[in-house]
Amino acid sequence: MNTSIEAMTPARRNLVLATCCLSLLVVSMDITIVNVALPAIRRDLGASLSGLQWVVDAYTIVLASFLMLGGATADRLGRRRVFQWGMGLFMLGSLLCSLAGSIGWLIAARVIQAVGGSMLNPVAMSIVVHTFPAPADRARAIGIWGAVAGISMALGPVTGGVLTHGFGWQAVFWVNLPIGALTMWLMARYVPESRAPKPRRPDPVGQLLLLTGLASLTYALIEGPRSGGLQAGGAALLAVAAFATLLVYEPRQQEPLLDLRFFHSLPFSSATLIAVSMFASMGAFLFLGSIYLQEERGFSAPVAGLCLMPMALAVMVLSPISGRMVAARGARPSLLISGTMLTLSALMLTQLAAETPLPLLLVAFGLFGCGFGMVNAPVTYAAVSGMPRAQAGLAAAVASTSRQVGVSLGVALAGSLVGSLHTPRHAVSSGFTEATHTVWWILTGCGVLIFGLGLLSTGARGHASAQRVAHLLEEPQ
Fold first, then answer.
1. What pLDDT score was predicted for residue 142?
2. 3-state class of 254 per DSSP?
C-alpha cells in the first residue's frame, strides 16, 4: 500500500495527515492528562510536591531536549522507521509508568516515554510538510495539526479525571497503548518511507548543552526552595553557562542542532516566545488548578475534570476555527484574540479564593481555553511559513521544543512559588490559594506579551524579516 508521495490521491494524503495527528494526540495529551491524576499519585506513592513537579517536568524536559535530534535522525535513517521506533518506545514507557511502585520509578518511566515521544512529533510534522507540497494544502494541513495539538492538551485533564476515578491513576498511561498500536499499523501500511536529500549531521555537543541547560534550570526552580541557596545557585549558574556556551558554539557548526539564523526572522522568534509564554501558562494553570480543585475545594478527580470542561470545550471549538483563520487571514487575528483571552482569564484568577463561586471559576477556565485554543495554529504556521521546505522540519521541531520548555518552566515556577506552603504529606495548607495569586499575575503578563508580539510580528517588518531569513537559509552554507 506504500506509494510515492507524488502519486498519492487527496484521500491518501489526508489519511497520512490523520495518522501523524494520532501520534501528536498521544504525545501532547500525555503532557496534561497526568495533571488531574497528581493528587492520586501523591496519595498512592507518598510523593512530595517537588516529586509531582518532576512527574510532569521529567517528561517535558527530555521531550524538549531531544525533539531536534529525533527529527535529524529521521531525516538520515528514514522518517517512517524512526517514527515506529519512537512509538514503540513511547508505548513501553507508558506501560512502565502504569507499573511504577514508587515516585522515582514513575519519573524514570516518564523519561523513557519522552525519549520515544521525541521521535514522533518532529518526524510526523516533517512527513506532513512533504506530503502536502502545495502551499495552500500545506497551510490547511498545518492548521489541522495545530488544532489537534490544542485539542489533545485540552482532552487530557477531562480524560485523566474520568480514568483516574474509574480505574486508578495507572489508567492515564494505559490509554496510550491502543492508540499507539493503531498508529503504528497505519504508519506501516499507508505512509511511504522518506529521507531528507541531505540529512543533517548529529551535533552531540549541542545536544548535551541543551539538555544540561534545561535540566539545570528546572532543578534550580523546583528544588531551590527546598535544597537551599547554594545548590539552587549552582544549578542556575550551570544553566547559564550551558546556554551561553550553546549560543557561542552553535554558530560555528556547519550543521548545528539549533540554527540560530532562524531567530533573525521576527515571526519565528516571536512564535517561539509566544509558545513558551502560552504553554508555561498552561503548565502552571493545570498544575495549580488540579491541586486547587481537588485539595482545596474537595472535588473528586472526575468532578475536577468536569470543572475543566469549559477550558477543554473552548480549545476543541476554537482550535480548528483558528486553523481556518490562519489559512485565510494569517496569524495576527488568532494571536490578538489569544493574548486578550489569556489576560482576562488570568486577571480573574488573581482574585481566586477557596470560596470563589463555581460559575465565576468556570468562566475564567473557559476564557483560558479560548486563549489557548487560538494560539497553536498561528505558532506552528509562523514557525514554518516562509522557510525552505528542507528547513521546515527543523523549524517545526524548534517550535515544538519551545512548547515543551514552556510547560516545564510553568510547572517548575508555579510549584516553587507556592512550594513553601507544602509538606511531603499534604498537597495544600492554609494560604495555598492566596499564594497562587502571584502566578496568576505572571500569567497576566504573558497574555499582554502574546498580544504585543502578535501585533509586532505580523506587520510589514515581520514579513520582511522572514523573507530575508528564507533567502539566507536557501544560500549554500
1. 74
2. coil
Q: Measure Cα distances from 266 to 179, 218, 340, 466 in Å.
A: 37, 27, 21, 7
| Average pLDDT over every residue of 147-156 | 75
Distances (CA, A) of 374 to 123, 271, 316, 370, 392: 24, 13, 10, 6, 22
Measured CA angle at 357 (ends 351, 363), to 5 deg: 75
- Is 425's pLDDT higher than 90? no
Distance between start and end Cα atoms, the chain: 38
Q: Give the integer Cα–Cα distance in Å for 437 and 443.
A: 10
For the chain, the residue count is: 477
Per-residue pLDDT reduced to its tens digit, 252-269: 877 777 777 777 778 888
Kindly tell me if the per-residue pLDDT of 94 is higher than 90. yes
Q: What is 124-140 written as a DSSP string?
A: HHHHHHHH--SHHHHHH
The pLDDT-based confidence of 274 (bands split at 50, 70, 90) is very high
228: left (phi over 0), alpha (psi -120 to 50) or beta: left
Residue 12: Cβ-neighbour burial (10 angstroms; 0-12, 13-18, 19+): middle
The pLDDT tens digits of the residues spanning 14-50 come to: 888 888 888 888 887 887 788 888 888 988 888 877 7
User: Residue with C-alpha cell 543533517?
Assistant: 200
Distance of CA 73 to the CA centre of its chain: 21
Instruction: Tell me how far CA of residue 133 lies from CA of 6, 192, 255, in angstroms.
Output: 9, 15, 24
Work out the number of other CB atoms within 10 angstroms of the CB of residue 6.
6
| Gyration radius of the chain's alpha carbons | 21
In the 8-state DSSP scheme, what is residue 252? G
Task: Provide the whole-model pTM.
Answer: 0.80
- Measured CA to CA, the distance from residue 445 to residue 453 in angstroms comes to 12
In terms of C-beta distances under 8 Å and separation of at least 24 residues, what long-range contacts does 235-242 make, across chains too?
A: 238/212, 238/213, 239/212, 239/213, 239/214, 242/209, 242/210, 242/212, 242/213, 242/216
- Residues contacting residue 340 through CB under 8 Å, at least 6 positions apart: 371, 447, 451
**Percent of the chain at pLDDT exceeding 70:** 87
CB-based contact 128:17 (threshold 8 Å):
yes
